[in-house]
C-alpha cells in the first residue's frame, strides 16, 4: 500500500520555521499521547530504487519499477525529486533544490504523490515556492485541498464566453485593448520597458474589484521579488495577492514548476467561483529552464535548442485560464503572461508560440519608451481579441473612435516637424492626436478607476483639451480629476453605477469640463489674435 | 537471478538465513542474498527484493510516526 499523503515538507523545517511554530508545538506537547493514537503504521510494500549516477541535477535511479511519470520521489529523505524520464532500465529524476549530499547508493522511494500543492485560504498574502512551501518566514500553510500541478483544461461545455471586464486601471489598455475576465493577454516587449509595471499596476487596481491576484516570479532576482512584495504591501495589495517565487538561483526544476504551482493555487479559488488574475513573469525564463532540464535529460532538441514540446509547455499552462459557466461555479482565471523579446523581435520562436496561444497581446516598443511615452504601448500593434465585448458601455462610448483618431495621427506624425507649413485641417488632427496621446501617458502605480478614465478620455476626444498647452496635459489631468472629485463626485458615482453615459450625463460632463477649463486659464494656450 | 538484500540491526543467525534462502528460492528461483547489518535500524529487518522493499525495522516505523505526528501539528 503506498504511503498516505503526508506533508513531508515539515520534516525539513529550518530552525527559523521551527521557531515560528514553537508556540503551537508547546501547546500540543501535552496532547502528544492522543496524537499518537491517531498514528497508523503500515507495513506495506514500498517501491524503491537506488541512485546509480548523478550529473548536473539529474539523478539516474535503478529500480522504481512502478513509478509514475511526473511523480514526486524521495531521495533518502534528503531531497525531493521529480521522476521525469522513465526509461527501460532506469528512471531520470530531476532533483528539486540543490543536490549536495546525495550519494550513489542512496535509496529513492516513491511517495505516490503526483505533483500537487496544498492550498487553503490561508495562502492569501503569502510568498511561496514551487512546492507551495512558504518562504516569507511566516507560519506553515495548513492545506485544505491538494491541487494537482498538471491537469486537463476545462472542456468546451464547462466554459462561458468572456464578457466581464478586468479593469487594469491603465487608460491605454482599458480604452483600446480591453481585457476581460477569463482572457489570456500577452505582455510582450524588450527588457526594462515596463512589462512588469503593467502587471503590478493591474494588481494594484484590483483592490475593490473582488479579484484574487497571483504573481508568479520565474527566474528573477531575489531583490526584485523582495521589492515587488514591498510595493504590494505598501499599497495593501497583499490582502488579496499571493506571490509564487522561483528565483534565478533556484534549480531549473523549481523554475519549471513555478507557473504550474501558481495556476494550481488559482484553480483552488476558481473552483470556489472566484475571479482570479495570474501574472507569469516571465515565460521566456520558464522556457529556458525547461530547455535546461530537457537537454540534461537528453531529450531531442529542436529549434533554438528548445525541446519539441515547448509549445505544449505553454499551451497547457495557458489553456487552463478560462471563464467557467454557472454550472461550474462561474469563476474565472485571467492570465497575463509576460514574454521578453530580444531587440523587439516578436517573430522569434517562443514569442510566436505564445502569441498564437493567447487572446491578444500588449506590445511595448522601445522607441515609444525612449520618446517618453510611458506606458510604451504600441496601440497599432497591440490587440485584444475579446475587445469591446469586455468593455463597459460608458468606455465604449468615449473610446470608440480613439483608436481610429490615433491611427490617423500616427500617419501624419512624420509631418509634425513642418507643422507651420501645413493646412489647417492637418494641423488640427495633429494637435488633437498629440493631446490624446499625451492623455494616455500614466504613472505605473497610479491606476485610474473606470469612471475617472471615462471623464478624462471624454474631455480629450471631444476637444476640450485642444486649447490646453501641450506640455501641461499631465498637470491638467491631475487638476481635472481633483476638481471632479471635489465638485462633481455625484457625476462620477453615477457613471460608476450606470456604467453608461446617458444624454443628460453627457451634457453635465460637457458643462463640468468647460467650467474647469475656464477656471484654469494658465493651462490654456494664448490665442494668437486676441488676448485672453 | 534476483537480488535480495536483508538489512537488520544485528547479525542474523546462519540457521535463520538458510531457512530464509530456502523459502526465497522456492518463490523466486535462483537468488543472490546480501545480508547487511546496520545498527541505525535499531531492530527489525528490511527486505529489498529487486525494486520492492518491505520495511519492518524499528527505525522505519519511528520515521512513519514522526511524519504523521508532524503532519497533525
Quick overview of this protein structure:
The complex is a heterodimer of chains A (532) and B (73). Chain A is α/β, with parallel strands linked by helices and 532 residues long.
What does this structure look like?
- Chain A is built from 17 helices and 16 strands.
- Chain A is α/β, with parallel strands linked by helices.
- In chain A, the strands form three sheets. Chain A has an eight-stranded mixed beta sheet, with helices on both faces.
- In chain A, strand 3 (71-75) and strand 4 (79-86) form a beta hairpin.
- In chain A, helix 14 (450-461) crosses helix 16.
- Chain A starts with 14 loop residues before the first helix and ends in a 13-residue tail after the last helix.
- In chain B, strand 3 and strand 4 (52-57) form a beta hairpin.
- Chain B has one domain (2-71).
- In chain B, 41% of the residues lie in helices and 36% in strands.
- The mean pLDDT of chain B is 85.
- Chain B has helices spanning 14-28, 58-72; strands at residues 2-8, 31-37, 44-49, 52-57.
- Chain B has two helices and four strands.
- Chain B starts with a strand and ends with a helix.
Which terms would index this structure?
A: 532 residues, alpha/beta, 8-stranded mixed sheet, 6-stranded antiparallel β-barrel, 17 helices, 36% helix, elongated, disordered N terminus, B: alpha+beta
